[in-house]
Design a protein that fits this description.
Layout (H helix, E strand, L loop, with lengths): L5 E5 L4 E5 L10 H16 L6 E5 L3 E3 L19 H18 L4 E5 L2 E3 L1 H7 L3 E5 L3 E3 L13 H9 L1 H10 L3 E2 H7 L4 E3 L4 H12 L4 H14 L4 H16 L2 H12 L11
Parallel strand pairs: 2-3, 3-5, 4-6, 5-7, 6-8, 7-10
Antiparallel strand pairs: 1-2, 8-9
Helix pairs in contact: 1-2, 4-5, 8-9
Length: 266
């Protein structure tokens, strides 16, 4: 019996989801797509799960699409309709990652190329090993960055760098990615998953409902005007003020003790 393409570990408060096709640098085929989406849904449905770590097994995080899974049947066969793959598999995955009402930490343990790089960028916090590389590999085979690449890159690193990376497909190191603001922090290879889990464990004891509202506000800020964002902040703060965690946070502050957040919605 073959190994599952995605591993799920319940860590008691948070989940570790691991891409598990190491012989293919964890590149996506349809089965791994569906397994990853199901793992995210499993975490979302678990009331005790309050954070997620996403990482890869082996030497790489994710090399993007497994091109062998999208080969034309023969020389005379019509070209594949790649829009179906995007619409049915990649877009739902990116939307799910952005919509989850809990923090998602990506531990990039090696190469993150093509869609693999952009799925990492769809997470809330990205940590990387010093050996990691980020590559917008699409132009090397005549394609356009997908999985949110043309959305995330200019917002994270600016138009000039985004255009150069997309057109030239130049690999950038973890150090460059951190310096440019593409990712949060870098660690030695043996420590990156441990650091991600430590961060997830800390977040799992935090005000989860408040985190969800923060994510909602930041997602909306990408397209809102200042007036729209000010109004949204007002409305979200009203919701946060009604939450048990706000009451607990204030009580703990006044009593000079560590808060015991439940993460529950009002």
């Amino acid at each position: 019996m073959s190994e599952p393409s995605v591993l799920y570990e319940d860590k008691g408060g948070y989940a570790v989801i691991t891409l598990n096709r190491p012989d293919k640098l964890n590149s996506f085929n349809e089965e791994m797509h569906r397994a990853l989406y199901e793992a995210l849904e499993r975490a979302e449905a678990d009331d005790t799960c309050r954070a997620i770590v996403l990482t890869g097994n082996g030497k790489g995080f994710c090399a993007g699409q497994d091109l062998g899974d999208r080969m034309q049947a023969g020389a005379d066969a019509p070209p594949p309709d790649l829009s179906r793959t995007i619409e049915q598999l990649y877009n739902p995955l990116v939307r799910k990652l952005r919509a989850l009402e809990m923090p998602v930490i990506c531990a990039v343990n090696g190469v993150a190329a093509g869609a693999g790089a952009n799925i990492a960028l769809a997470c809330d916090i990205v940590l990387a090993s010093r050996s990691a590389k980020f590559i917008q590999a699409f132009s090397k085979i005549g394609l356009v960055p997908d999985s949110g690449g043309t959305y995330f890159l200019p917002r994270l690193i600016g138009s000039a760098r985004a255009r150069a990376l997309a057109l030239l497909a130049t690999p950038i190191t973890a150090e460059q990615a951190q310096e440019w603001g593409l990712i949060w922090q870098i660690f030695d290879a043996e420590a990156v998953k441990e650091e991600a889990c430590s961060m997830a464990a800390e977040l799992a004891t935090g005000p989860t409902y408040g985190y969800a509202l923060i994510k909602e506000a930041l997602n909306a800020s990408e397209t809102n005007t200042l007036d729209e964002q000010l109004d949204l902040e007002r409305d979200l703060q009203q919701k946060a003020g009604y939450s048990p965690d706000y009451k607990e946070g204030v009580s703990a502050f006044m009593e000079k003790r560590k808060p015991q957040f439940s993460g529950k919605k009002p």
